[in-house]
Design a protein that fits this description.
Elements: H1 7-42, H2 46-54, H3 60-63, H4 65-77, H5 79-88, H6 90-109, H7 116-146, E1 150-152, E2 158-160, H8 170-194, H9 199-228, E3 233-235, E4 252-254, H10 261-265, H11 271-289, H12 292-314, E5 317-319, E6 329-330, H13 338-366
Antiparallel strand pairs: 1-2, 3-4, 5-6
Helix pairs in contact: 1-2, 1-4, 1-7, 1-8, 1-12, 1-13, 4-5, 6-7, 7-8, 8-9, 8-11, 8-12, 9-11, 11-12
Length: about 375
């Protein structure tokens, strides 16, 4: 039976949906990671730290849905990408999961004992649970941009030839620090909205200003690496977008500066990096001036622009190989079957709007400032 959408269209839709899920994760759980990264620096006593924690206490668990959805979508829609990336990033992913596991434990156990040492230890655990994932996610994106050292043999068996320490290069560290700066800016903007006016909010504004400047500078440095550092790949020859998912039909080669090709071919794509810079500038102005909602809108737009820049620059590549460019995984050679993509799309059409509606309702109901005074009267607060 013929499906309403052809195979190439479904592949592009799922490529776009993967980007939507990554952006959703950055916009929601991103400010959770940012607040956790800021915790030891914006709060100086137990009351201030509890107040900062409770700015995200009502929503952090729901925000992780986007992370789970993203992993599930990659597994179901792009199984080859899932297999290669999770094998290559195994130790890095293990470190991220260990850090993320610290978060719920720290939230629940931090205030179980009045000991200052006990509570401060869990506060640093929250910091690790915010900073480490933000850094590693950025490093992972940097490795994808420069290409991973993997290959397929004639029987389509994947082999990864890299090491954990090999993931850290000057370019990938720039990407990691950009990720941290972006999410710290987002977390600082969130604190300006959610924390009561006072010392915590003022410190968040100070650090957020520096983080927004760092995000713009690091984004510009990343462009220099891409434009002049020999990064990029391109496809050669004709690729059938409706062909089978066989990674050995990529016909890809390394092409210095290749990640800028799409922007030269389709000038409208420059709106993505422009949004990354403009959003960070708006966040900077908003945080510095005490304009709460413009600051948060700016940090959100910056995250959208930066993530979109990566996706648009790489299309149709998803996971290029610097060891064997011919083994690179693209939109056209790494997806699940047409029927699988269509069936999953039906589920997305039904459930994604429900998730968005429920999330919006939850934020509306639980929105409001966190205060030190409320800690003494509300037993539900951490």
């Amino acid at each position: 039976m013929a499906l309403p959408l052809d195979y190439p269209t479904l592949r592009v839709i799922w490529w776009a949906l993967m980007g939507v899920l990554l952006i959703g994760f950055a916009l929601t759980d991103g400010f959770d990671l940012g607040v956790a990264s800021l915790l030891p620096f914006v709060a100086r006593n137990d009351g201030e730290r509890r107040m900062a924690i409770n700015t995200i206490s009502a929503t952090w668990e729901g925000n992780q849905v986007w992370f789970i959805l993203g992993g599930g979508a990659i597994f179901a829609a792009w199984p080859l990408v899932y297999a290669v990336s999770f094998s290559g990033f195994y130790l890095a992913m293990f470190a991220v999961l260990a850090a993320l596991i610290l978060r719920p434990v720290a939230f629940k156990y931090r205030s179980k004992r009045p000991s200052p040492v006990w509570r401060e230890s869990w506060d640093w655990a929250l910091f690790v649970g915010g900073f480490a994932p933000a850094l590693v996610f950025g490093v992972a994106v940097g490795n994808v941009l420069q290409g991973l050292p993997f290959s397929f043999d004639s029987d389509l068996r994947a082999a990864y030839h890299g090491s954990f320490l090999g993931l850290f290069t000057p370019f990938t560290l720039v990407c990691g620090l950009l990720s941290v700066a972006m999410l710290v800016t987002h977390g600082a903007a969130w604190l300006t909205m959610k924390a009561e006016r006072g010392a915590v909010r003022d410190r968040a504004r100070l650090i957020g200003t520096a983080a927004a400047l760092a995000a713009m500078a690091l984004f510009a440095v990343g462009y220099v690496f891409v434009a002049f550092g020999g990064l990029g790949f391109k496809l050669e020859g004709l690729i059938a977008p409706s062909g089978p998912s066989n990674p050995l039909r990529a016909l890809a080669v390394a092409a210095p500066g290749g990640w800028l090709t799409n922007f030269h071919t389709y000038p409208w794509m420059w709106t993505a990096p422009a949004l990354g810079f403009a959003g960070a500038a708006l966040a900077l102005i908003g945080i510095r001036s005490g304009w709460e909602f413009p600051a948060f809108a700016g940090s959100s737009l910056s995250a959208i622009g930066i993530i979109s820049t990566v996706g648009l620059s790489m299309f149709p590549f998803i996971l290029p190989s610097r060891l064997d460019p011919g083994s690179s995984l693209t939109v056209w050679n790494a997806s699940s079957s047409q029927s699988t993509l269509f069936t999953m799309l039906l589920a997305v059409v039904v459930f994604l709007p429900l998730i968005l509606i429920y999330t919006s309702w939850a934020y509306k109901v639980m929105f409001g400032r966190s205060s030190v005074a409320a800690l003494a009267t509300d037993p539900d607060l951490y």
